[in-house]
Amino acid sequence: QKEVEQNSGPLSVPEGAIASLNCTYSDRVSQSFFWYRQYSGKSPELIMSIYSNGDKEDGRFTAQLNKASQYVSLLIRDSQPSDSATYLCAVNLFSGGYNKLIFGAGTRLAVHP
Amino acid sequence: GAGVSQSPSNKVTEKGKDVELRCDPISGHTALYWYRQSLGQGLEFLIYFQGNSAPDKSGLPSDRFSAERTGGSVSTLTIQRTQQEDSAVYLCASSRLFHEQFFGPGTRLTVL
Fold first, then answer.
1. Mind listing the pLDDT tens digit of every residue in chain A (113 residues)?
2. Which of A39, B33, B38, B54 is deepest in the core (most CB within 10 A)?
3. Which residues contact A11 (CB under 8 A, 6 or more apart)?
């Protein structure tokens, strides 16, 4: 089992809809969770971080964390074509005496007009 | 600037040549990471620095790859005797200890 798993997509949603991106992780003791957005040809950009169970909202983005079920999700409301990108889930894992960020392979989101 | 910087932005080299890639982290960030991303692929972890030491080199794909960090700041990733399969974007990220990572713009390496 991969440490961080995401559906590779593409996830296709119409403009204005809610895009729901999901991520599961294997390490029960992970405490920090991040979502990065990566446009084609660009480097990953941090868009959300979440540390406790529940929802965290930032503008059109909502991150949801459920540690008991070991999943974290990202909702994008009122999706825009400019949201089309690959979304990377990242989970902190303390391993080998240090803190390591494990990335999922990413979900490609396509928002069509 | 306040972000992570990397140089060069693009590097084209011939097979068998050595290359050096540079990363300048955000000031005050003690942790520094190198990743590799091939076209259409996910992030491949290469090496992690805490200060000047590298507690995790597990991702380096072969002994042709090495990295160092001096003064707890700038890091250099060196690839010796480059091969065509080394062609990729090399990304550097930095963070404060146990915090989120911030990425540089990357160096696109092309080995002919």
1. 678 999 888 999 999 999 999 999 988 788 899 999 999 999 999 999 999 999 999 999 999 999 999 999 999 999 999 999 999 999 987 776 677 788 999 999 999 99
2. B33
3. A19, A21, A107, A108, A109, A110
